Amino acid sequence: MTRFFLSLLLAAPLLTACASTPDPAKVCTAEWIAPRAERAADRLEDKTAKAFRALRKVGAQWVSGDKPGTLSLLSLRGAVRDLEDELKDGRGVRDLRTLAQTCNDPELVRTEVTKVLERQEIPAPVLNFLRGSSLLDRLIELAEGTKADTAKPVR
Questions:
Q1: Can you give the pLDDT of all 155 residues of the chain as single tens digits?
Q2: Is the Cβ–Cβ distance between 62 and 125 less than 8 Å?
């Protein structure tokens, strides 16, 4: 009899955990999603700041007609690797993926990553180049996790 009560006592937290799983239809309101998506995007932005700084620097040189120096290009190369790593498996991206999966919103990751990119003040010609060469789509797909295993690394 004691074993029976002991097993019930141990199983009770597991049963309540199942009962408290949020229903996406009730939880996934704009008021619930917005702060979580913003927090995840802020994490992503913090972790990718160095990469975007290098991209802005080289982009500004390129737009002004100057040829970026070797050190700038090497810095950009390392920054792009860091950016790829963060978009592939960074905490902010994982949080966005979880949120998108919980709320059945596949566009959430793309929307938030695009917002982060737009806030980076990357020169328009550089953004146009990234869009035209499909590099921007590859980076976003990497963040979405849709083509993480087939995307060629930018090295």
A1: 666 555 555 555 555 555 555 666 677 888 999 999 999 999 999 998 888 888 888 888 888 888 888 888 888 888 888 888 888 888 999 999 999 999 998 899 989 988 888 888 888 887 788 778 887 788 888 888 876 444 444 44
A2: yes
Angle formed by the axes of helices 70-89 and 135-144, to 10°?
30
CA dihedral 146, 104, 18, 95 (to 10 degrees): 50
Label residue 68 left, alpha or beta by phi (over 0 means left) and psi (-120 to 50 means alpha): beta
Residue with tokens 């009770």: 12
| Separation of alpha carbons 122 and 119, rounded Å | 8
